[in-house]
Write a structure and sequence with these properties.
Elements: H1 3-8, H2 24-41, H3 53-63, H4 69-77, E1 85-90, E2 96-101, H5 111-133
Antiparallel strand pairs: 1-2
């Protein structure tokens, strides 16, 4: 059974080696491997369906970006993970606190987080330049 057929039917295809190219075969393999890995600790976690070409074009226009072909293929096939992951973050008085974080941003829903991610490189550069000038 082909990898794509197995993926579409929700079955597990047997793949022992990592596909050599970042193409649809790799993304099907990656989906199967990650969801299989999540099944023991996070059984509800699954990749969301990919975006349409129209949705990707609208995102590129909204965010004033042009996604490279490999990331565009990723968005077409996988897009984002449907469940938020619990992780750790610094809390008060150096205690660890539970922090919910995304594995992959959802371009349709995570506007606030994406906006922050877009500004962080500029903010970091501004801080570094400020330290040099002082």
């Amino acid at each position: 059974m082909a990898l794509r057929e197995a993926s579409n039917k929700g079955e597990q295809a047997t793949v022992d080696t990592i596909p050599p190219r970042l193409d649809e075969t790799f993304l099907v393999w990656f989906r199967q491997r990650t969801e299989q890995g999540w099944s023991s600790g996070y059984p509800q976690r699954r990749w969301l369906p990919g975006l349409s070409e129209e949705e990707i074009a609208a995102l590129e226009q909204t965010w004033n970006v042009r996604f490279p072909p490999d990331y565009r293929l990723f968005l077409l096939r996988l897009h984002a993970v449907g469940e938020v992951t619990a992780g750790a973050a610094h809390g008060r008085k150096h205690l660890m606190a539970v922090k919910k974080s995304k594995i992959v941003y959802n371009w349709l829903l995570d506007t606030k987080e994406l906006r922050r991610a877009f500004t962080l490189p500029l903010w970091d550069l501004t801080i570094k330049i400020g330290k040099v000038l002082l």
